[in-house]
Amino acid sequence: MAKQKTLKNSVFLSGIALHTGARAKLNLSPAPENTGIVFKRIDLPGSPEVKASAANVVDVRRGTTIASGNARVYTVEHVLASLHAAEVDNAIVEMDGLEPPIADGSAEPYTQMIIDAGTVEQSADAKYWTASSPIIVEEGDTKMVLLPYDKFKITCIVSYGASPLDTQYFSGEITTESFAAELAPSRTFCLYKELEQLLALGLVKGGSLDSAAVIHNGAIICKEGLRYQNELARHKTLDIVGDMYLVGRRVKAHIIAVKPGHPINIRLANEMLKQSL
Length: 277
Ligand SMILES: [Zn+2]
What we know:
This protein is an alpha+beta fold. It is built from 6 helices and 19 strands.
């Protein structure tokens, strides 16, 4: 039986927050058994906490936002993906603002933090979410099918229409090693027309080609070229690894995702929570 894990040491990352453009610092620290993943807003009076749970999701429009009381935390999915893949069950994620540093738009900096911190086994048994029956959620042309499976596997198909690399596909078992090598480095993408809307709303002030790749008129604009031929499908898979950790335990299932996004990911996570009751 696998044991719960936490971090061996505290580590931090600082950088620019995507939407506010402010400097942001994120600190990962060890936590006792059965704590789960808890975000802490250390810039607010009393340092309020928000547990990483689908029940605390309040917004899914530009990433996954969780909140509890007056404490709100944006864009939790990339740090959660790294913690899920590394099988870190218990950790405190301290933040000094609304958003974590976006870094290069991938999960690689968070995965590197966990490697730098090291992990340590605790005495309690690890908890897994397993499926008792298939789950299907659909919305428009997006669809998620979850099947019982004794490991964690994701099959993902994306299509942006505007991309020359349509249609993209990724399928694989998610392990600590496969995530670090095949998924963590894949970056956030956005459509140019979405970017125009976000800028008009005063958002993405900290965004640049350092932190995302942009799809415009059938071309992909990014700084260093694509990291993988199917980088979009890999990033969407990464987001699923993160959003599914909002069930509060390591996931064992095969998830087949067609054109996924945060809204449908969170609907699936909520259905998973209902099944585990
Ligand atoms: Zn993402």
